[in-house]
Design goal:
single chain; about 220 residues
Length: about 220
């Protein structure tokens, strides 16, 4: 028994490098098998997500926006960082006039994406949502961000011009109101001053009348004498 053990030890010692190589190969094989199954699972999940997204897109095209949002939500449950699902969810919510939620979906898509064109589209749509809410300043800011990412976007340029026009009209309207308010205040102040002056004049006349009466009494008194 001892001789067999001795022979085995000598064999391992002679072929030490071979054993090391076999051990490494065995380890790599195990890692490869694990990676294969992980990729397989991810591939199945991706195929499932793509299928759900296609279903959502079909529903969106048929103007079934509520159904589309449900499909996109399912896709996001499987792939929370899927840019397409976030972006398309924003489109469906926009059509449902759920503008705050739509802006949130576009913002998530912009954060997750590394593609500047997609980011530009996200901010363009955010600008549209703000515009629809009549929040002109926020809308203009979003369009400007979109144009920084994609300076050639003609639609963003046009919408920015429209938003700036709305801002200008809003400021002009505010200025007109301010001027009208100032005029009303000035008018009230003038009327008060005029009323005050009238009272003062009336008081002076009363004093004059009283003085005349006193003088008349003195004169009558003098005549009586």
């Amino acid at each position: 028994m001892q001789n067999k053990l001795q022979h085995i030890k000598e064999f391992i010692k002679k072929h030490k490098t071979l054993f090391i190589v076999l051990t490494v190969l065995k380890l790599l094989l195990k890692i490869g098998i694990v990676l294969y199954f992980v990729c397989k699972v991810n591939d199945v999940a991706a195929q499932s997500t793509n299928k759900i997204l296609r279903q959502g897109n079909k529903e969106y095209k048929n103007q079934k926006y509520n159904n589309a949002t449900e499909s996109y939500s399912k896709a996001l449950q499987k792939e929370p960082k899927d840019v397409r699902a976030h972006f398309n969810q924003g489109d469906a919510l926009f059509q449902l006039n759920e503008l705050d939620k739509a802006k949130e979906s576009y913002t998530n898509a912009a954060k997750l994406s590394t593609n500047t064109d997609i980011q530009a589209k996200c901010f363009y749509n955010i600008g549209n949502a703000y515009y629809k809410q009549e929040k002109w300043e926020e809308s203009a800011k979003a369009y400007k961000t979109s144009l920084k990412l994609n300076p050639k976007d003609a639609d963003a340029k046009y919408n920015l011009m429209m938003a700036l026009s709305k801002i200008k009209k809003k400021r002009e309207k505010k200025e007109r109101r301010r001027k009208k308010k100032r005029k009303r205040q000035q008018k009230r102040s003038t009327e008060k001053d005029q009323q005050k002056g009238y009272k003062m004049n009336k008081t002076n006349k009363d004093k004059i009348k009283k003085t005349n009466k006193v003088k008349d009494n003195n004169q009558k008194s003098n005549l009586d004498k």
